[in-house]
Amino acid sequence: MEPRPRSFYLLSAFFALFLVFLYGPTITIAILSFQGPQGGLTFPMRGVSLHWFRDLFEQQAVGDIWGSFRRSLVLGLMVMVTTVVVSVMGGLAFRKRFAGSTVIFYLIVTSLVIPSILVSLGVGLIFSQSGLGIHWATSGFGAQLTWTLPFGLLIMFAVFNRFDRSYEEAARDLGASPWQTIRHVVLPIIAPSLIGVALFGFTLSYDEFARTLLTAGSYNTLPLEIFGMTTNVTSPVIFALGTLTTVFSFVVIGVCLFSVWLTGRRRARRASDAGKGVA
C-alpha cells in the first residue's frame, strides 16, 4: 500500500479544524446547558441535571421566550410558503426570455449583496414613512423575503434549466391542459427541489436577525429575544434555550430529508407499477 501524500494529511487536518469551529460552540453550549442548579455560564460544570430545561418552561423574569418562538414559527411558515410559490412562478416565467428579464434577474441577485442591516433599515423607514405599522408579520415578513426569495429563485432557475420539456409535450399530446401539465407532471418531478426551497425559506427566516432587527416592531422574534437575553440572563437557561432551538432546527431538517426520501420512493414505486402495466 502506497503511503498517502502529505497533502492528504493537511487537508484532513484542515477539515477537522473546520468541524471544530463549526460544531464546537454548539456542542459546548449543549454541554453547559446540563449543569446543576448551582451551575454558571462557564466551565467547570457544577453537577449534571435537567434543572435549566425545567426552568426554561417556567415563567421567566425577563423576556417572552415562548411568545417569540411562536412568532418565529409563524413567520417562518409564512416566508416558506411565499418563497416556494413565488420561486416556482418565477422559475416558470424565466423559462422564456421577456422584456426586462435580465434587469429583473440582477435586481433579484443584488438583494443578496446589500448589507442586511441596511435592508432592515430601509424597509422599516418605508413602512414608517408610509404610515404603516412596523410589525413582524408585515414589515418583518417583507424584509425576510428579500433574503429568502433570491435563494429560492436561483434554485428554481437551475432546476428548470435542466428540466426535460418532453414530459410536458407528452402530456399536452395526451390532451392535458396547461394547468393539468403543471399539476400532474411538472410539480411531481420537481417536488424534491420544492422541499429544498421550503427548507431554505423556513430556516433562513427562523434564524434571521439583522433583517428583522428594525422591522419586528414591539414584539421580538426568537433570534431577537435570545440576543436580548444575552444582556439580562446570567444563568445556563440561555444555553438550554439554545440547545432546544438547535434540536428543533435539526428536526425540521430531518423532516425535510425524510420528505425527499419518501417522495423519491413513491416516484420509484409509480414508475415500477407503470412498467408492470405496460408489460
TrEMBL record:
ABC transmembrane type-1 domain: residues covered: 69-256
Superkingdom: Bacteria
Record membrane topology: Multi-pass membrane protein
GO BP annotations listed: transmembrane transport
GO cellular component: plasma membrane
Keyword field contains Secreted: no
Residue spans crossing the bilayer: 7-34, 73-94, 103-127, 147-164, 185-206, 237-262
SUPFAM superfamilies: MetI-like (SSF161098)
Family to which the UniProt record says this protein belongs: Belongs to the binding-protein-dependent transport system permease family. CysTW subfamily.
UniProt protein name: ABC transporter permease
Origin organism lineage: Bacteria, Pseudomonadati, Pseudomonadota, Alphaproteobacteria, Rhodobacterales
